Amino acid sequence: MANDITGYWQTESGCVYHFSREDEFIVATIYRPTAYQTLCGIKPADLVFKGTLVGKVLVGVFQQRCLLSDKERCPGAWLASSTLYLQVSDSFDLMTGDCLIWHIPDNSCEADDRRLDVLTFKPATPEEKVTDTSGKHKHFTSGG
Q1: Beta strands per DSSP E along 23-78
Q2: Do 47 and 141 meet the contact criterion of CB atoms below 8 Å apart?
Q3: What is the SS3 assignment for 38?
Q4: Which of 125, 128, 131 is nearest to 45 (CA)?
Q5: Tens digits of residue pLDDT in 20-76
Q6: Residue 139 predicted with pLDDT over 50
Q7: Residue 143 has pLDDT above 80, yes or no
Q8: Which residue blocks in the chain are alpha helix, DSSP H?
Q9: What whole-number distance in Å separates Cα of residue 125 and Cα of residue 144?
Q10: Where are the domains of the chain?
């Protein structure tokens, strides 16, 4: 994986992402979502990250979603994007960073309980092939 982060990467949650180059950007799509991500409406081939790699720091926009039930109740708060910084190891076989996580309470549509969670990505080998029938990944959309 010398000096290249393209390919499949898995987080400790079990989600598998596919990182690839798109012009001067690095993009990440969902390859295999977790059960919770599925409850949030995240599907294979959804674009969740777009950024650039400078040296050994990958920086860009990371898209997160709350549960689909929150989308119905709070359409403007269901989808949020934040800046994600990932430090790539010297051997290009590990990426770590902090991800801002938030919660939408039952009695309000204002996010509360924000915290930073550590994200660790390790190279993965996909167990099954997931195809995107549209022929291209889904791009970021605005909330709602």
Answers
A1: 25-32, 47-54, 57-65
A2: no
A3: helix
A4: 131
A5: 999 999 999 999 999 988 888 889 999 999 999 999 999 999 988 777 777 788 877
A6: no
A7: no
A8: 35-39, 68-73
A9: 34
A10: 7-123
CB 101 within 8 A of CB 80: no
Give the three-state DSSP class for 27: strand
What token pair was written down for 67? 């549960």
- The three-class DSSP label of residue 37 is helix
Looking at the structure, give the CATH architecture of the domain made up of residues 7-123.
Beta Barrel (2.40)
Task: Give me the pLDDT at residue 82, please.
Answer: 83
Beta bridge partners of 39: none
Please name the residue that has the structure tokens 């596919």.
18
CA distance 33 to 43: 7
Q: Give the CA dihedral 112, 116, 117, 122, nearest 10 degrees.
A: 140
22: enclosing H helix or E strand? strand 16-22
Return the structure tokens found at 104. Answer: 């939408």
Residues 7/18, Cβ–Cβ less than 8 Å: yes
Q: Which amino acid is at 88?
A: V
Q: Over the stretch 82-101, which tens digit does the pLDDT of each residue have? A: 889 999 999 999 999 988 77
